[in-house]
Amino acid sequence: MIKIENVKKSFGNREVLKDISMEIPTGTVTVILGPSGSGKTTFLRTLNFLGKADAGRLVLNDLAVDLHAASKKEIIDVRRHTAMVFQMYNLFSNMTALENVMEGLVTIKKKKKSEARDIARAYLKEVGMDGFEAYYPVQLSGGQQQRVGIARALAMDPQVILFDEPTSALDPELVGEVLNVIRKIACDLKVTMIIVTHEIAFAREIADQIVFMERGSVVEQGTPDQVLAHPQESRTRQFLNRYLGGGNIRAAEA
Amino acid sequence: METTSIIDFTYIVGSFFYISSYVKVTLYLTFVSVAMGALLGLFSCVVQQNHVPLLQSVARLYVLVCRSLPNMVLLYLVYYGLPIAFMAMGDTWGIHVPYEHVPALLVAAVGLTLHTGAYLSEIFRSALQSVPAGQWEAARALGMTWFQMFRRVVLPQAAVFALPLFANQFLSTMKSTSICFVITVVEIFGAAKLFCEDNSQYFEAYIVAAGFYWGMGIFFEFVFSKLEYTMGKFKRGNA
Predict the structure, then answer these.
(1) B75: domain range?
(2) What residues of chain A lie within 8 A of the CB of B142, using their CB?
(3) Which residue numbers of B have CB closer than 8 Å to A's CBs?
(4) Contact B32/B177 with Cβ under 8 angstroms?
(5) Alpha-carbon distance A103 to nearest alpha carbon in chain B (angstroms)
(6) What is the ipTM of this complex?
(7) What confidence tens digit (pLDDT) does each residue in A138-156 have?
(8) Domain annotation covers residue B81
(9) Residue of chain B nearest A76, judged by CA positions
(10) pLDDT one-digit tens code per residue, A191-236
(11) For residues A209 and A28, is the Cβ–Cβ distance under 8 A?
(12) Which domains, from first to last, does chain A contain?
């Protein structure tokens, strides 16, 4: 179980996260939706300390840390038990696809190179990137790079994977391959995931829990059926209308 | 009336042999100053990048001062200043350094190192800044320590950016060794000058000296371009 409690953050006078809390049962997928600028990405980044919260607490199974006052050691500890998939992929450009996946295994987990190589190969296969082991990021399409990014995250065997708009930078025809991979690992591997995305149809299909955020607050949260099909809040309805072009979720899927 | 050729080949050969025994001094000064300067420059740029209190100000001041001084002035300052500094060390802390006998070669190496380090500090700074923030973030998210991020991810990428500029500085330092003759270090240029004074054949001696610099310059340029090709492999891709 992952618990996130009372996360707050301001940039200057502007409050971007106003007391956000949520619980994420192990093996479930939580999707965070919301308009641009609602603080979704900022929130996600406070969880692994890429951004620092002004207040808040994170309980990662048996590891509890203060999101504002964590020590250096605690920060590294949290990062080693979480993984992140970035909007811009951020593969290490000086390493091949295989080396990217091996890197954390060798440098952080101190595995032998041969063992790390076997694990990395298996995860590249899992994301359908077998055969591309020796390619450098510069030689791969955005969708391929993102799949390697997902393999890199999976290889660390994290307690949760944080997805920061994993398909937002992709050409439309490449979005599908990445979503398929995420769908597959959610079903097969039962990895706990928090996904920030704008893909509403995908969210409905994959999420166990949907959190709708606006202006730094959680407006509504519940199952996809509750939040997307029967939203209680007018702000949620407005957002969904805007995104689905006035239709409803069923129309969007059809 | 006897015809005289413009260039006298016996002096070319003579100065070649005379000067060639001082090539090692030029090479020694170049390698030592660039190597020590690289360490100094890396240190200076990293403490600035990481905003280490006090050290970052010292580093900034160092770069500011040493970049705006002519190399030769810096060399003289070290030449006359180093013994005074050693003397003061003896007086203040009782550490006795034989300041009466500081070898000129050491002074030259220190002077060139200070100069080269200041330039390399700026080259390394721009190289570090060329690595996108996302690379640091991905490394951070994995749970790497600063040193692991630097060693595994940032340095290999920054090095490729820095290499052509580093090669420039290397050649520049190599040529700067010629001013060390003003503090009595005999290297290629100094040897040529001494040869002239003994034989009064100026042009021949300097042609030979130029030839040595030229040969070394071309050689190192070749080495650096090979290195750049190898280290930049990830930018072109393989397979």
Answers:
(1) 23-185
(2) 79-80, 83, 103-104, 107-108, 156
(3) 132, 134-135, 137-145, 148, 152-153, 156-157, 233-239
(4) no
(5) 9
(6) 0.90
(7) 999 999 999 999 999 999 9
(8) yes
(9) B143
(10) 999 999 988 988 998 999 999 999 999 999 999 999 998 888 888 9
(11) yes
(12) 1-81+161-174+191-254 (3.40.50.300), 90-157 (no CATH)
